[in-house]
Specification:
Layout: E1 2-8, H1 16-23, E2 29-32, E3 41-45, E4 48-52, E5 65-68, E6 73-74, H2 76-88, E7 96-99, E8 103-104, H3 108-120, H4 132-141, H5 153-174, H6 182-196, E9 200-201, H7 204-212, E10 216-220, H8 244-251, E11 258-266, E12 269-271, H9 284-292, E13 305-307, E14 309-310, H10 311-321, E15 325-329, E16 339-348, E17 351-353, H11 360-364, E18 367-374, H12 391-404, E19 407-412, E20 420-426
Parallel strand pairs: 1-10, 1-11, 2-5, 2-10, 5-7, 6-8, 7-9, 11-15, 14-16, 15-19
Antiparallel strand pairs: 3-4, 12-13, 16-17, 16-18, 19-20
Bound molecules: inosinic acid.
Residues 11-13, 38-39, 125-128, 130, 132-133, 222-223, 227, 236, 238-239, 272-273 line the site of inosinic acid.
């Protein structure tokens, strides 16, 4: 019981969706704490596939209350499409709650995202073009629009009258793009407000009530630690705080209320977008892992970059998030390899580094130090208990856990819910 924070330990896409889905089986509440529809994941259950961008995947458990927390930036148009898709796939959305404090992605945010990326030229970040960065920038500038504003139309109109000229100035004068009108946005967002009304409220009493009653609450993180605005590979990061500190602020929960922090890691590493990736692979092996692991973005369809498991990243993530349990996903993708490698450190500027350095150029130009382990060359898909995993796979996992500094709680060996090995703290 208590609050479990679930964070990504790498560059996102670690398989948090499946882990949260498993953890939320026994949870009374799941809270999505940050990010926007730049995130996406798929949950496969009973042969049915559900795609999520904003709604916590706990919604598939009918009695679980699912909250879109104050730290999220929400595109109402995308959320409504997701709500409709989930409803037509048979999901019950009566337990969905949207925090009135969550910020909204406005129509000019995705436009600015694209224009800013183009203006960066060779230094572009590879954003998802969903408007996430511009929306968080406006939140920080205190010119953002919150979900609660949909219920205060006069206020919304007045504020648009002040904010929109600022946006149009940049759109028209800097980029030569067409302007937006107050009337157009007001009409569009009034309609969104009407359709979302039943979900919007202040979740503070609900969340704190659940914690006070000792219920099981899961915080669902999006993206991963290395994409954290402060702790990641800046500027090649997202604009929110995917680490556990961000998750707490984004849900309105204090650190002493947390019982456990689960860090989700792939058995190897991937990243989308640009920026340093110390263990990145190229060539045939990269192609093999990408195909075998279906490493294409759920949100944008982009091919993901792939590499070996990176212990400096994992150890860093364990420390900065306070991770006490590891969930290792996609072990089965490595099943047929003759050997597997673990990066244990970086050689950079004549020094051996054991954690990701802040200096991007040092991170880009380092030499990873590898340990090589024998592969297991057999399928792990049928394993359900730790002892059922091949011995070589167990030693690989034990080594990951030992070097990363946390115990393994579960290992995922396939996309289905039941393709999971519960380890009870191996390593
Ligand atoms: P943005 O979040 O769209 O601004 O993109 C900034 C960086 O974060 C880019 O490298 C994206 O590819 C990456 N990113 C954003 N969301 C995700 C995600 O859910 N998974 C993996 N990478 C992401």
């Amino acid at each position: 019981m208590g609050v479990t924070v679930c964070v990504g330990g790498q560059w996102g896409d670690e398989g948090k969706g499946k882990v949260v889905d498993l953890l939320s089986e026994s949870a009374q509440m799941v809270i999505r704490s940050q990010g926007g529809n730049n995130a996406g994941h798929t949950v496969v259950t009973g042969g049915r596939t559900f795609k999520f961008n904003l709604v916590p995947s706990g919604i598939l458990h009918p009695s679980t209350v699912c909250v879109i927390g104050n730290g999220v930036v929400l595109d109402p148009k995308v959320l409504l499409a997701e709500v409709e898709q989930l409803q037509s796939a048979g999901a019950d959305l009566s337990n969905l709650v949207i925090s009135e404090r969550a910020h909204m992605i406005m129509p000019y945010h995705p436009v600015l995202d694209r224009l800013e990326e183009a203006a960066r030229g060779d230094d572009r970040l590879g954003t998802t073009f969903r408007g996430v960065g511009p929306a968080y920038s406006d939140k920080v500038r205190r010119i953002g629009f919150r979900v609660g504003d949909l219920q205060k139309l006069r206020f919304l109109e007045k504020k648009l009258g002040f904010v929109l000229p600022l946006k149009n100035d940049v759109l028209v004068k800097l980029y030569g793009a067409p302007p937006f009108t107050v009337e157009g946005i007001l009409a569009e967002y009034t309609e969104y407000g009407r359709r979302l009304e039943r979900f919007i409220r202040d979740p503070f009493p609900l969340i704190q009530g659940a914690i006070a009653r000792g219920e099981r609450v899961i915080l669902e993180g999006a993206q991963g630690t290395m994409l954290d605005l402060d702790l990641g590979t800046y500027p090649y990061v997202t604009s929110s705080y995917p680490s556990s500190g961000g998750a707490l602020a984004g849900a309105g929960i204090g650190p002493s209320q947390v019982t456990s922090t689960v860090g989700v890691f792939k058995a190897y590493t991937t990243r989308v977008g640009y920026g340093p990736f110390p263990t990145e692979l190229e060539g045939e092996l990269a192609e093999y892992l990408r195909e075998r692991g279906a490493e294409y973005g759920t949100t944008t369809g982009r091919a993901r970059r792939v590499g070996w498991f990176d212990v400096p990243v994992a150890r860093y993530a364990v420390a900065v998030n306070g991770i006490d349990a590891l969930a290792i996903t996609k072990l089965d993708v490595l099943d047929d390899l003759e050997t597997v490698r673990i990066c244990t450190g970086y050689r950079s500027k004549g020094r051996l580094e054991d954690h990701p350095m802040a200096n991007i150029s040092h991170l880009k130009h380092l030499e990873p130090v590898y340990e090589e382990h024998p592969g297991w060359r057999s399928s792990t898909r049928q394993a359900r208990r730790w002892e059922e995993l091949p011995a070589a796979a167990r030693s690989y996992l034990e080594r990951l856990a030992e070097l990363s500094g946390a115990r393994i709680e579960l290992v995922s060996v396939g996309p289905e819910r039941d393709e999971t090995v519960w380890c009870g703290g191996a390593g």
